[in-house]
């Protein structure tokens, strides 16, 4: 059985509190028997490596915050989810397209994505390192 959980990024603080409680319950009920991962739209694909470095304890939270371009409400609304996933060693996925590409498509249309190199396109929706890709493949096996 696969479970998907998503919520709008325009939620109120109460909505975020409910979201956090639902995620806590999902983790408590399904992890570690089933693979649970946290995918956050607030982080862009090109900062996945920074998310991974913080998740692994290689950089401090201050370094993470300075380098990952989090939304202004990260600490109040998303940090509890992130830290729970980190503490439980759940995968955390930076899920959003990089802003520069979103802006490019907004200005020049959807076909402008085709002007990007393969490396640029891959960085916008794939894991930036082979190790991360292998880790995710291993983690998502039933």
List its salient traits.
single chain; 142 residues; mainly alpha; 7 helices; 2 strands; 10% strand; disordered C terminus
Question: How would you describe this protein?
Answer:
By secondary structure, the chain is mainly α. It has one domain. It is 54% helix and 10% strand. Strands 1-2 form a two-stranded parallel sheet. Helix 1 (13-30) runs parallel beside helix 4 and helix 2 packs antiparallel against helix 3 (61-68). The longest helix is centred in the N-terminal third of the chain and has 18 residues, at 13-30. It is globular and about 45 Å long. Mean pLDDT is 81; it is low at 124-132 and 138-142.
Query: Radius of gyration, Cα only, in angstroms?
Result: 16 Å
Portion of residues in beta strands equals: 5-15%
Total of helices: 7
* Adjacency order of strands in the biggest sheet: 1-2
What is the helix content? 40-55%
Structural class: mainly alpha
Overall pLDDT metric: 81
Low-confidence stretches: 124-132, 138-142
Biggest sheet layout = 2 strands, parallel
Number of strands: 2
Give the termini separation.
Answer: 9 Å
Secondary-structure element pattern, one letter each: HEHHHEHHH
Apparent shape: globular
Question: Structurally, how many domains make up the residues?
Answer: 1
């Amino acid at each position: 059985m696969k479970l998907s959980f998503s919520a709008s990024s325009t939620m109120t603080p109460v909505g975020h509190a409910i979201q956090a409680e639902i995620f806590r319950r999902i983790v408590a009920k399904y992890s570690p028997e089933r693979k649970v991962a946290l995918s956050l739209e607030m982080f862009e694909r090109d900062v996945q490596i920074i998310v991974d470095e913080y998740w692994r304890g290689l950089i401090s939270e201050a370094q993470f915050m300075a380098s990952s371009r989090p939304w202004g409400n990260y600490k109040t609304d998303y940090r509890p989810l992130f830290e729970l996933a980190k503490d439980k060693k759940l995968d955390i996925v930076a899920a959003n397209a990089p802003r520069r590409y979103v802006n490019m498509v907004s200005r020049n249309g959807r076909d402008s994505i085709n002007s990007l190199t393969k490396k640029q396109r891959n960085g916008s929706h794939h894991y930036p390192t082979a190790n991360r890709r292998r880790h995710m493949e291993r983690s998502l096996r039933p």
